[in-house]
Amino acid sequence: MKLIPSVWETARLTIQDLSENEIHIVQKLYEQGRYIHQWDGGSLDYEYAYRCFTDGDLPPNGTKDKFKIQVIRVKETDTIVGILTTYQGYPKNETYYINYLYIDKEYHKQGLGKEVISELLSFLREYKFGEVRASVAIKNWPAIRFWTGLGLDTINGFYGDNEYRADHYADIELIKKF
Question: In angstroms, what CA-CA distances link 14 with 49, 135, 155?
Answer without folding.
Answer: 19, 24, 30
